[in-house]
């Protein structure tokens, strides 16, 4: 397909991506959009660290700092980490389970465009009166008091992009339940697929509470509601509960796919099957389940009382057990293996000590009585960056290097990859390790500056220096991407040579239809089994025939655009007369597009047997 | 014997860590140099949890280092296929059970201390004989009301040492959080309800910390969240009682200095609508819009953050926005000439109860 696309003009390529329902192209869209937001969030992080490099700094103003810190958190969680996780899932999961696409290709595209327009909408706030400034948690009393439209952008933007995430989650649940190739039982699914499955279930249950909270806040701020106004019978603590009932599972929504990515990488580059596969599955499910039982540990200082605090403290500690199981299983996957230190493996190996530090500080935070000291201090900032950067970002970088050949047909340069790794790894520990101590020494989080004479100077300076290392690593990564795209050599099906799962059995990138013949899965690590028996390809489960494919469609784009316009109109409905009409027009665009989707009969198209044979021959020769 | 050995290891690890951590931070601010019963309990938990966690990290690191050095693919092993091991029930049970035991060791004191720290019964008795302070957090300043003595102060909290001091905590605008790191963990001041907790200030260690602890707002509350500091003067009980008596009986002193008189006039014209100057203020809290300035001259900081001198006071009065962005005082009074600033400053610096 890529050779075909290259012959077309730029306009045709753009149109292709606007209308695509192919999971592999949607993965690329997620990767590009998430990557851009990641750079934006990184830039915001650098502004934060420059401001905090020295006491009493006036690099940026206090109000602007709060906007930057809010947007850093919101962007990194919702607009960078989530879509990048979805990029990995889209690129890999359908192929890993031997499917030709996800269950609902149209919804897959809709999910992406909703996320994209939500993210763009949120970032427009920079140019339209000011970004949200109440932290990514947007606690109700402060966010209701915020004078600019920033919070409204947050509330509306996150509703739109959250809808996209929810749709994506449901899509993957259905895909994994229904679309597995013959023989791919649940206990033969690759670990990354399992992680995606559990994560999707978490999305299904975690995003609705957030949406409820966001709708309440939208009502309060834009339509005269009083859900969070204590003077009128509302209650701000309700927001905290709703937010964290979503917010804590969100951590696992991000980190479980990270665990999945590392499980694949450890097995591949140790040339061994995953140690304790069934206990890994069990641990993943258990973490997902317990993840919903612990949200109030974010609220130990709210004053819920000792009974609630004690229960949530113990429940939180319990999560350490399945997480510990995973750590040891990974170590013993490597034990006795033949470890090859490729770039993805470097990240995976570095992840273990980094994440263990983040995990144990998590248990420390769980000790409620001591958490009264840690809470809202830099200790917590250090803790969750160890989890999110040491876990999720490492995994995304590892996954990007690992599956890059599968997504683009070219290997990222290994030398530059290792340079990125070392810069990022050193910078990460330099930035965040010292912050544990800053917190214990009494430095609260979310401060735009600090006064001299409190013992915070050295630590903050070290932290800022570390941040520059990470920035340098990111620049090298970008250079690597550009160089690879321009000069990289095409690679075959299994460029790492030790691929174990189905995605390494198809060409790189995979053909539009993934598998010419649906494969028969004969065990865990299906491709590895075939390789060990000396076979080149997979055992087919069906004869070669015509392949039914979905048609591309612009409607997901239009539906999302309509909501974008509607949000824009309603946001300004109190300030401008055009607000409400524009809002209504936006909703009509969305509903109209949905109407057309309902009445147009779209049966898709077939790729004929001959074309498939032709493409396969070319793929084999590449 | 073995148990004894394990305990001994834990003890030595804990004491080594305590030595290491005690070097961190300032005695008036650091949680690692606890100065009272509450901070002590929390510090003990920190040490215990850190000790357990260091053990966990050590075990993982040892296995980790062994694995990544021992099992790296060497030259000539390119075609070696290692044995495909499914797992090991024994190992898996070991690394499930040991963490559970470690967590139980940690969970017991956690639950115990969580309940201990929540014991506020003495402050809610009808006939109470403990010191109770009502803390009200406002956009970038703190009010401290002593309901049993009928006095109010702000920014500098004054407490007796060597006994539990109880607090009612609430916020009047947005959520804040009350934190005196060296003396104990924080508790939020909500807009919806009143929270209660206690702190204890140890006399000897207060003395070592200069009898002035730093307090912080720990919940993002707006642009000047970082500057919403307060101070805690921890005095021996006798001195505290004296301070209370002085506050109760504080009377405005008529000054003969014309400059001070002029300052008082300016104050009465532009400031008194929000700021009270007597510690006994009968108005309801909704009317107390700004810090009570009784005893202002005795305070440790201007606006909670600047060194306490006339120059800084003038700078604050001239342009508070520059010092605490987003504060509620900016723009509530007419611009002051240099002469008026001088007079107002002189007047404010006479507000003493000492």
UniProtKB/TrEMBL annotation, chain A:
The keyword Cell membrane applies. Its cofactor is heme; Cu(2+). The keyword Metal-binding applies. Its EC number is 7.1.1.9. Residues 9-522 form the Cytochrome oxidase subunit I profile domain. Pathway: Energy metabolism; oxidative phosphorylation. The chain crosses the membrane at residues 27-48, 68-93, 105-128, 153-179, 191-218, 238-262, 274-295, 307-332, 344-364, 384-404, 416-441, 461-483, 554-572, 578-600. GO terms for cellular component: plasma membrane. InterPro entries: Cyt_c_oxase-like_su1_dom, Cyt_c_oxase-like_su1_sf, Cyt_C_Oxase_1, Cyt_c_Oxase_su1_BS, Cyt_c_oxidase_su1_bac. It is found in: Cell membrane. It catalyses: 4 Fe(II)-[cytochrome c] + O2 + 8 H(+)(in) = 4 Fe(III)-[cytochrome c] + 2 H2O + 4 H(+)(out). It is an enzyme of class 7 (translocase). GO terms for biological process: electron transport coupled proton transport; oxidative phosphorylation; respiratory electron transport chain. It is a multi-pass membrane protein. GO terms for molecular function: cytochrome-c oxidase activity; heme binding; metal ion binding. Keywords: Cell membrane, Copper, Electron transport, Heme, Iron, Membrane, Metal-binding, Respiratory chain, Translocase, Transmembrane, Transmembrane helix, Transport. Belongs to the heme-copper respiratory oxidase family. NCBIfam families: CtaD_CoxA. Cytochrome c oxidase is the component of the respiratory chain that catalyzes the reduction of oxygen to water. Subunits 1-3 form the functional core of the enzyme complex. Co I is the catalytic subunit of the enzyme. Electrons originating in cytochrome c are transferred via the copper A center of subunit 2 and heme a of subunit 1 to the bimetallic center formed by heme a3 and copper B. This cytochrome c oxidase shows proton pump activity across the membrane in addition to the electron transfer. Cytochrome c oxidase is the component of the respiratory chain that catalyzes the reduction of oxygen to water. Subunits 1-3 form the functional core of the enzyme complex. CO I is the catalytic subunit of the enzyme. Electrons originating in cytochrome c are transferred via the copper A center of subunit 2 and heme A of subunit 1 to the bimetallic center formed by heme A3 and copper B. This is Cytochrome c oxidase subunit 1. The lineage of its organism: Bacteria, Bacillati, Bacillota, Bacilli, Bacillales.
Automatic annotation (TrEMBL), chain B:
It catalyses: 4 Fe(II)-[cytochrome c] + O2 + 8 H(+)(in) = 4 Fe(III)-[cytochrome c] + 2 H2O + 4 H(+)(out). It is an enzyme of class 7 (translocase). One of its GO terms (molecular function) is heme binding. Residues 23-121 form the Cytochrome oxidase subunit II transmembrane region profile domain. It is found in: Cell membrane. The lineage of its organism: Bacteria, Bacillati, Bacillota, Bacilli, Bacillales. The chain crosses the membrane at residues 45-69, 90-115. Its cofactor is Cu cation; heme c. This is Cytochrome c oxidase subunit 2. One of its GO terms (cellular component) is plasma membrane. Residues 258-352 form the Cytochrome c domain. Residues 128-246 form the Cytochrome oxidase subunit II copper A binding domain. Binds a copper A center. GO terms for biological process: ATP synthesis coupled electron transport. Its EC number is 7.1.1.9. Its main location: membrane. Subunits I and II form the functional core of the enzyme complex. Electrons originating in cytochrome c are transferred via heme a and Cu(A) to the binuclear center formed by heme a3 and Cu(B). Belongs to the cytochrome c oxidase subunit 2 family. It is a multi-pass membrane protein. Pfam families: COX2 (PF00116), COX2_TM (PF02790), Cytochrom_C (PF00034).
